[in-house]
TrEMBL record:
<dbReference type="GO" id="GO:0016874">
    <property type="term" value="F:ligase activity"/>
</dbReference>
<dbReference type="GO" id="GO:0030170">
    <property type="term" value="F:pyridoxal phosphate binding"/>
</dbReference>
<dbReference type="InterPro" id="IPR004839">
    <property type="entry name" value="Aminotransferase_I/II_large"/>
</dbReference>
<dbReference type="InterPro" id="IPR015421">
    <property type="entry name" value="PyrdxlP-dep_Trfase_major"/>
</dbReference>
<feature type="domain" description="Aminotransferase class I/classII large">
    <location>
        <begin position="54"/>
        <end position="397"/>
    </location>
</feature>
<keyword id="KW-0436">Ligase</keyword>
<keyword id="KW-0808">Transferase</keyword>
<dbReference type="InterPro" id="IPR015424">
    <property type="entry name" value="PyrdxlP-dep_Trfase"/>
</dbReference>
<dbReference type="GO" id="GO:0016740">
    <property type="term" value="F:transferase activity"/>
</dbReference>
<dbReference type="Pfam" id="PF00155">
    <property type="entry name" value="Aminotran_1_2"/>
</dbReference>
<protein>
    <submittedName>
        <fullName>2-amino-3-ketobutyrate CoA ligase</fullName>
    </submittedName>
</protein>
<dbReference type="InterPro" id="IPR050087">
    <property type="entry name" value="AON_synthase_class-II"/>
</dbReference>
<dbReference type="InterPro" id="IPR015422">
    <property type="entry name" value="PyrdxlP-dep_Trfase_small"/>
</dbReference>
Length: 412
């Protein structure tokens, strides 16, 4: 008789997603670049990855704060002061740094309050089910981040009505909300910046439809935090002018270069989230040294220094997009820190990503399920501390590689 754990593994191996991915790894053993080891980091964005020194265009640390002496000093001082962890759920107690970091984030964003989770994934898994009951409904953009979709699945398991609408399509949002009526309350969950393409949510149009249907807008702004909007406050305030009827989720692990995620919302909602959010009650918090580092990073982001870093990032992104488009590459996004070069075919995407790596640059080769089938792309994360020469060289390599491996219908 088969051992139960072997039977379990065999059952999982037969699932469509695992078969698809294992098939890819088998058919293209030299191409896929997953699960690699980062062996050395620095200076700048140079890294030794899987045995090769490359310039890293796959870092979410968009402003280079992971190397800022003020952020590093805060982590060190935090370690000396608090130790490596306080080892208690926030349901019992929060270190003072946690309270201070939340106050700082709220003040920076101009929101009433903020609540920190150990990651954006846990914020979405914690907040979405906690904000809804079986009398309520939630609809998501079809391309909203996986962690938003997983949060919605948890809500659905407790009886919340769920639906989806076509990407960034206000008319389809209206249809989706109406199809779920009657509901007591509803959420419309979207990303502020779509992480695979770098494109923005149509926040004004979606907010208007949400408001017309008595629904609250829920924006996962992980990639907007620190980068977009005045003083890096993200996409929401700039687009909508206020946080009325909006819950915002932000990241502390990307441009902020620390660790965690947060929900910015009215104080009353924050209180309810603390009572109802399972990951906060039954899980541990962000380690205190990283909360001290969040305070230091937010001080930088909310200052002229932060403006300079965002300007440097903007210059680098303009250089990349201008150069790539000048070489006829089909580039999308490019508003914040993410621009993607469309390839389409999945094997061609992996081949191109590998060839770019072999020539000294790391960009992420993105294929299904992160993007739709045949929607493969090379995702370029531009950072403020990339050198202009590195950006120009990447553009040259991308153009050569795509000419060689996957001649594209070039944009005139
Ligand atoms: C839109 C969005 N939400 C959530 C996450 C997950 O964030 P975390 O790593 O903090 O869980 C990401 C990660 O890239 C993201 O792009």
């Amino acid at each position: 008789m088969q051992h139960p754990l072997d039977r379990l593994a065999a059952g999982l191996a037969a699932s469509p997603l695992v078969r698809h991915l294992e098939g890819f790894f088998r058919d293209h053993p030299d191409l896929h670049m997953k699960d690699m080891t980062l062996e050395e980091a620095g200076p700048g964005r140079r890294v030794k990855l899987a045995g090769r020194w490359v310039v890293n265009f796959g870092s979410d640390s968009f402003l280079g704060l992971d190397r800022d002496p003020r952020v590093l000093a805060a982590v060190r001082d935090g370690l000396d002061h608090w130790g490596s962890h306080n080892g208690s759920s926030r349901a019992f107690s929060s270190v003072e740094s946690n309270v201070r970091a939340e106050e700082k984030i709220a003040a920076w964003l101009g929101a009433e309050s903020a609540l920190i989770y150990p990651s954006v994934t846990l914020a979405n898994l914690g907040a979405l089910p906690a904000l809804l009951t079986r009398q309520d409904a939630v609809v998501t953009d079809q391309y909203a981040h996986n962690s938003v979709q997983q949060g919605v699945k948890l809500a659905k398991a407790s009886g919340v009505k769920t639906g989806q609408f076509a990407h960034n399509d206000p008319a389809d949002l209206d249809r989706a909300l109406k199809s779920l009526r009657p509901y007591r309350s509803a959420l419309v969950a979207v990303d502020g910046v779509y992480s695979m393409t770098g494109t923005l949510a149509a926040l004004v149009e979606l907010r208007d439809v949400a408001a017309a249907n008595d629904a609250v807008l829920y924006v996962d702004d992980a990639h907007g935090t620190g980068v977009l909007g005045s003083r890096g406050r993200g996409t929401v305030l700039d687009a909508l002018g206020n946080y009325d009827n909006t819950v915002v989720v932000g990241s502390l692990s990307k441009a902020v270069s620390c660790f965690g995620g947060f929900v910015a919302c009215p104080e009353r909602v924050r209180f309810l989230l603390k009572l109802r959010s399972a990951p906060l009650i039954f899980g541990g918090p962000v380690p205190p040294p990283y909360l001290d580092a969040v305070c230091a990073a937010v001080d930088i982001l909310d200052s002229a220094d932060g403006d300079e870093l965002r300007a440097a990032l903007g210059r680098n992104m303009t250089r990349f997009c201008g150069g790539a488009r000048g070489r006829g590459l089909p580039v999308i996004g490019g508003v914040g820190a993410i621009a993607s070069v469309l390839v389409g075919d999945e094997a061609a995407t992996l081949r191109a990503g590998r060839a770019v790596f072999d020539r000294g640059f790391y960009v992420q080769s993105v294929i299904f399920p992160a993007v739709p089938h045949h929607g493969g792309l090379l995702r370029v994360q531009v950072n403020a501390n990339h050198q202009p020469t590195e950006i120009d060289a990447l553009v040259g390599v991308l153009a050569d590689v795509l000419d060689q491996h996957h001649p594209l219908p070039r944009v005139a």
